[in-house]
Design goal:
Blueprint: H1 3-22, H2 26-48, H3 56-68, E1 86-87, E2 93-97, H4 102-107, H5 114-125, E3 134-137, H6 161-178, E4 182-186, H7 188-195, H8 201-204, E5 209-211, E6 214-219, H9 222-227, H10 232-248
Helix pairs in contact: 1-2, 3-6
Length: 251
């Protein structure tokens, strides 16, 4: 029984017993005094009872469990692991990709394949580490060309707009908890998914946008750099803008 409800019952009982006392029932009045003492104790306990708010790490842990249990779209049926995200829960810089691939699906960690290794090098060139930034995806489960065979390599595909729409709520909650100063979207899918912008990534990359009270800069996905190394110079131009913003607050 909740304390407030219990206090109301005690108050009613005390009033009733006091009425008995007025009619000469002295024994029941003693019970009324005991009830009054109990009510006072409970009121004091209620004054000192406080609920400690969850910190960012605890909030992310709770959200991680929600993602693990999610059945919001068909991707949940073929995933091996939901890939929530990782990094510093109060990071100023957040990277958002499109979705887990083969390696990420098997280990449950974001950006750990060849594209992820290149992203790590980019982060380190920015004088950061994976522990000082936060890395996530717009969808948390592996989008596959052939979902019947999660053990197949080269089986990745971009997430569909409907898949992104269903899963984006988790990313939005991550952003609300972490409160990054700036978000870097990696590639066309995450950029379109967050900004609802149909411009090609070659046109929109490097431009300053805003999303959920944070600055946002789109750039190429690391996988694109593996296919076309000449794009690296454009990504580095974008990352210099990010570094300048983090050090000065201006772009």
């Amino acid at each position: 029984m909740k304390q407030l409800k219990y206090l109301k019952i005690l108050s009613f009982a005390k009033t009733t017993l006091e009425d008995y006392n007025n009619w000469g029932e002295t024994e029941v009045y003693k019970a009324s005094q005991e009830l009054s003492n109990n009510k006072t104790i409970l009121e004091e306990q209620q004054k000192t009872f406080t609920v400690k708010p969850l910190n960012a790490k605890e909030q992310l842990d709770n959200l991680r469990q929600q993602v693990k249990d999610c059945k919001g779209c068909p991707l949940c049926k073929t995933r091996l692991n939901a890939v929530f995200g990782e990094g510093f829960e109060n990071a100023d810089l957040m990277f958002v990709g499109e979705g887990p691939g083969y390696d990420e699906d098997h280990k449950g960690e974001p950006f750990i394949g060849k594209a992820g290794q290149l992203l790590t090098k980019i982060i380190e060139a920015m004088s950061q580490t994976r522990d000082t930034v936060y890395i996530a995806n717009i969808v948390k489960c592996h989008p596959m060309i052939d979902p019947s065979n999660p053990e197949k390599r080269e089986n990745d595909r971009p997430p569909t707009p409907s898949e992104m729409q269903v899963c984006k709520r988790y990313l939005d909650m991550q952003i609300d908890i972490i409160k990054p100063k700036i978000i870097v979207t990696l590639g066309a899918s995450s950029t379109k998914g967050l900004l609802n912008n149909e411009d090609p990534i070659s046109k929109i990359r490097g431009t300053l946008q805003e999303y959920n009270n944070a600055k946002l800069i789109p750039t190429y996905h690391p996988a694109a750099l593996l296919r076309n190394p000449s794009l690296k110079k454009f990504v580095w131009e974008d990352m210099k803008k990010v570094m300048h913003f983090l050090s000065t607050g201006e772009i």
